[in-house]
Amino acid sequence: MTGGPFCAIVPVTRHFGYPNRLGSLSQPHHRKQTSPLAGRPWRQRVILARVDTGLRLMHVHAHPDDEASKGAASTAKYVAEGVRVKVVTCTGGERGDVLNPGLSVDPARLALLRREEMARAAQILGVEHAWLGFEDSGFPSGDPPPPLPQGSFAEIDLEVAVGPLVEQILQFRPQVVTTYDENGGYPHPDHIRCHEVTMAAVAQAAPLWQVSKVYYHQTFHQQKVMALHEAAISNGLESPYADWIDDILARPDDSHLVTTRVQCGEYFEIRDAALKAHESQIDPAGHWFVLPAEIARQVWPTEDFELALSVLPDQGPEDDLFAGLR
Question: Could you give the 3-state DSSP secondary structure of residue 323?
């Protein structure tokens, strides 16, 4: 099993020009699902086939609900295959807004509610979970933006924030870790700090446990957003991405960053259930659920990642976060 002490980790270039053995990187791979769990109700798929394969996947996220909005379907797929998956949440999300118009929350209870929601989502996904225990930094707005709250995750010294994640890595010993890119996926200070902390922790843990691969989530790259937007419009639905299109088209196409596409369409219902468990952060009748899972899996049946660091030989485009490790 690759992934052990004293292996040198090397960066992977962010500009891939591989000969495409798996089909164009600009298109999702439509492979027939052959899992023996296919067709079963999703709750049964989470429970069945939990034979420990020895493979371990760690997701490091900034807030509770990030694990449900980024990579949740592939998480459920790996859990069903017998991979141990652990979600590490850096902050309590206690400065998040309540985004569900049908929910009234006492502000004094929000921190506890976010923990209860996270527990439900973890149960739905079938993952292990740990809190790092840092304080949500909030999303400061204004020009210039106000200072970050003193003692919050993005305000404290990086070395203070790294230690608890190093402990989690040494305890869980994952071969694969996922997080956000250097821009945080979007410029929330906690997401950017989550990237910094994850990369530093992987490096600091290496003398005792070498993570074999680190991936960045590529959840909303241009080609995926456009494909889902067009699918919604063509089916007479309100597109959840309508307000993004002008901005996305004005930016360079970022789809070349995608190195790894994990087929997980049959787990989209689990993803949606995990997201709805965070009821303070999502409107269950909102636009994110307008496009039915059945249409989404026909149009874009993968969750997409960028291989950022690896100790393994470069093998080109992947369809598995554990490619080269099985």
Answer: coil
Determine the number of helices (DSSP H) and then strands (DSSP E) in the chain. 10, 8
pLDDT band for 274, please (50, 70, 90 cuts).
Answer: very high
Identify the structural domains of the chain with CATH numbers, from first to last.
Answer: 42-219+258-310 (3.40.50.10320)
In 256-273, which positions are buried (b, 16+ CB within 10 angstroms) versus exposed (e)? bbbbbbbbbbbbbbbbbb
> How many CB atoms sit inside 10 A of residue 209's CB?
20
Tokens 């600009």, residue located:
26
Tell me the residue length of the chain.
326
pLDDT digits (tens, 9 = 90+) for 17-33: 322 223 333 333 333 33
Residue 24: CB partners within 8 Å, gap ≥ 6?
Answer: none
- What integer best gives the mean pLDDT of the chain? 87
222 backbone dihedrals φ, ψ, rounded to 5°: -55, -50
Q: Which long-range contacts (CB under 8 A, 24 or more apart) does 270-273 make?
A: 270/42, 270/45, 270/46, 270/72, 270/73, 270/76, 270/124, 270/125, 271/68, 271/72, 271/73, 271/76, 273/42, 273/124
Q: Which residues contact 147 (CB under 8 A, 6 or more apart)?
A: 140, 155
Which residue matches tokens 């821009």?
183
